[in-house]
Hints:
With 220 residues, this protein is mainly beta. The chain has one helix at 106-115, and strands spanning 3-9, 16-27, 30-38, 44-53, 58-65, 68-74, 78-83, 90-95, 99-102, 124-132, 137-153, 160-169, 175-181, 184-188, 191-196. It is globular and about 55 Å long.
Amino acid sequence: MPRGRYSLHDLHDHTPLGEEHFHCAPGPSGWRYVSQTTSPSGDHLGSVDLALDELGRPIRLELHAASWQVRGAALEGVTWVRTDPTGSHATEGNVRAHTFAGTSPAFLIAMTRLLRLTPASPATRVRVVTFTDPVLAPRTVDQSWALMNSEAHATDNGPLIVDEYQVSALDTGEQHTVHIAGDVVLAAPGIELEHLETPPSPRTHGSDLGEPDTDGPVAD
């Protein structure tokens, strides 16, 4: 069961935003990721609890940040309820999207488990609902994911497969690279792996992406 710590940074000026202490594990019915985020001074900022089914679909999501809360799951696309800090107002949302996204590394791993790309796969278009900090505001965006390279690295525990993904924002054309080993993010924009106690779990392969809307895989 991988357990460790990520450092989080601002995407533009690289200002430290804090740390995310996590543990995750595959199970008989999917995969689960649980984490707590702290500020640079050590204050508690929020938490993530994400569970996926065997096909990589989010069967349960619970986010907390700045006293805001989101609970969601894959239902007729993705469905969620967002509650304000007072607990008196809750807003429900539903979008014909594939999955959720956000600042946590959990969402990058979740995407790879949903897509299960190989280097021979074409770039694949996905629609996601992303929750932006600090108030977990939902925003629907379209992305393109492609697995550019898989490379084995020798370790004391055997070969470690590192996957290099290219992620494109289809509304702006902006591209960035994400490096992932199994269910651990090694490096991504705004994310650095600082400490890992146990090796990553192997990544999964071989499942087609279900299409909740009309956007299918597209080749670059």
